[in-house]
Amino acid sequence: MVEFKVKTRATGSTASMAQHGPASLVTETGGTLDVVTSVSDPGFNPLDLLYSSLSACLVLSVKGAVVKLHLLEKFSGVRVHVTGQKAPEGPSRVAEISADIQIGGDLSEEERHQIVALAKELCTVSNTLVQTPTFTVTTQPM
How far apart (Å, rounded) are the C-alpha atoms in residues 40 and 115? Predict the structure, then answer.
């Protein structure tokens, strides 16, 4: 088994929305993004952000796995496409998520499988989705 060190950084996001205008996000590290609500508006909606978080985490985890497995010289790139299906009934939620991982380079099928296995182990977002976290909501006046 390959050993790895976990590095941490400030995480979290604050969403806000005025009476008029889009919702906007600000991360703990200062990143910003407007959120769209209309199905015809280009940009990110909440489900896009969920799928984007997973695809970004898997891409970064694949790269980390390639480095840890000493396969960087054979690796040329990675693309992850994530989609999902909303549940047909019950509470509004995603019932199924799929990730298609394409890994480029002069890698054997066995090496690709090793990379994906390690990437799944490294990806905080996929691990969180597989193991339901505790979820707490509080409220207070603004």
Answer: 37
The letter for the amino acid at 2 is V
**105 vs 20, which has greater pLDDT?**
105
Query: Which of 129, 124, 131, 130 has its CA nearest to residue 56?
Result: 124
- Compute the chain's Rg from CA coordinates: 18
Dihedral sign, CA of 57, 21, 31, 12? Answer: negative
- CA–CA gap between residue 40 and residue 77 (Å, rounded): 32
- CA 11 from chain centre, in angstroms, equals 13
| pLDDT one-digit tens code per residue, 20-64 | 888 999 999 999 999 988 788 888 999 999 999 999 999 999 999
For residue 20, the model assigns a pLDDT of 87
CA distance 32 to 24: 7
DSSP 72: G
As given in the structure block, the two tokens for residue 110 are: 């066995």
Longest pairwise C-alpha distance within the chain: 57
- pTM for the model stands at 0.87
Q: Which residue, chain included where needed, has tokens 């997973």?
A: 54
Residue 65, number of CB atoms within 10 A of its CB: 26
